[in-house]
Design goal:
alpha/beta; binds pyridoxal-5'-phosphate; binds lysine
Amino acid sequence: MSEQVSYRDGALHVEQVPFARIAKEVGTPAFVYSSAGMTARYRALETALEGLPVSIYYAIKANSNLAVIKLFGDLGAGVDVVSGGELARGLRAGVPADKIVFAGVGKTEEEIAFALESGIHQFNVESEPELRLLNRVAASKGVVAPAAIRVNPDVDAKTHAKITTGRKENKFGIDIARATEMFELAATLDNVSLTSMSVHIGSQLMDVTPYRDAYARLRGATLALRQAGHVVDHLDLGGGIGVSYDGSAPPDIADYADIVKETVGDLDCRLSIEPGRYLVGNEGYFLTKVLFVKHGAERRFVIVDGAMNDLIRPTLYEAHHDIVTVAEAAAGEAGSLADIVGPICESGDYLARGRIFGDVGEGALIVLKSAGAYGAVMSSNYNSRPLAPEVMVEGDSFRTVRRRQTFDEMLALEEGLA
Ligand SMILES: Cc1ncc(COP(=O)(O)O)c(C=O)c1O
Ligand SMILES: N[C@@H](CCCC[NH3+])C(=O)O
């Protein structure tokens, strides 16, 4: 029996990930990433967008491990951050401040001050009060803050309701009809420079058509602003390109690039995009070990040492992740119905439900695919489970890029306070 799993996804693949060795040396559960896969994704996107004046800002919320940020930074990417903590990560990973954009509906005064002191490239402002606060903090520091307004184009991204961000009922952005009003307001504020707009309509878009509608509206707003005498020299087109979790066809990035070209390619604007999931989603795995197999009255439970605190996507979005066993490489192909569940005290603690799954026994290693995005970053200490380690596979070798949290580290913040 092989101790390795082969994985192919179009041109991008990890030939052999040494899961058994990783389990032995690092333990389980663990997140495992492919540097070759992430690099290939970045290059593919760059190639698809060739000829367009586009910069790539990696949205580090998808996977903010320092080694992952550094990998994209070294490839030339900037980063998109949504909190002071993410800004600290971007800087710590060596990304130059002038390649960092700061998005988010609820930036605090302290976060704005930190970003201004760091000298970031751009604030993507999501409300009028935020624009005024940005002006005030910038004035107190004697600087002019580079700003974009994030507009809400009221376009349905046709994705999961919890990750749709461009509809009127969503908290994100400023109604696109108010763009001119915002530019007029900014013109009266001495410490912001507003010459840019951003848009982000949602995550995990499997159909690129909604981008066409959103970018067409952005184009319309740009032309109207210019007509009114304002300068618009940069458009941030957001992230959201989906990846396949089940082997179905992913969106074609060439189609996405065509849409960019056709809608905003001729506006004489610098452009940027903020992909997160696309760059890392398929290039990570969640490795876990079978603790017990229990035959319930109605179904088989495969109880593993990974849980919803490690990978919450199945619980939170009913998300599907393909699963393979390390020994067989294709446990999903034959077998019987099973729930793959974790040790947490909630019935919602499952990694897969009602899955046709092979006959695994205690100690078997199983791998959830496509766990590179919104995996480790969304993990928690629920049930006082220490955070799982993260491992980067580089060529034939691998290295730990986040250690497994110890009990002492988990308890440190409360030390002496009880
Ligand atoms: C403003 C912004 N940019 C970029 C992203 C990255 O999204 P994704 O990982 O779907 O590419 C998000 C998350 O949805 C976001 O809110
Ligand atoms: N956490 C979500 C995506 C959120 C996108 C961030 N705006 C997921 O796992 O699919």
